[in-house]
Predict the 3D structure of the following.
Amino acid sequence: MCEICQSGKYHPSNTGQHGKAECLVCGAGSQVQNDGKECAACEGGKYSDGTVCESCQPGKYNPSNTGLDGKAECLACTAGSQVKNDGKECVVCPSGTYGSTDNTCQACPHGHYIRGEGKAGLSSCTTISCADGYFQDGAHCSQCGAGRQVIDYKCVLCRGATFYWAHELCTMSVW
């Protein structure tokens, strides 16, 4: 009797002349493809127990070009790095960011900065305190130009009938 294999199983025959007992299970790290006629290795960044290829859990990766046997074999990124390239690699967090507990790179909050790459944890951020009329520009404080003031950590234009004095505040002009 000619039957279709169950989900997750295959039969290499191109004729389709087989019974369910002749269906085979794909090996770990692979899945059924080509209408149930063959098994193919999962691509990098994925794993399989022999049925369906799945992505590694968030914060984990598979650096090989083939699938892994199970999700337990997915590797964790080291502190100060994050998963990239569809789960195929970990990359070091760039300068100005830190590696968070969920293996993503996060920018330091306003008023803080990290020098160097691959830093782990919010505690790696150092405080930057800028004087009035100056704003945080990466790891440095920069002065606002004429006609501007610092509002919400940004250098913005003075509005309306105002002028800029002493690089600190926009004030009303009095004539």
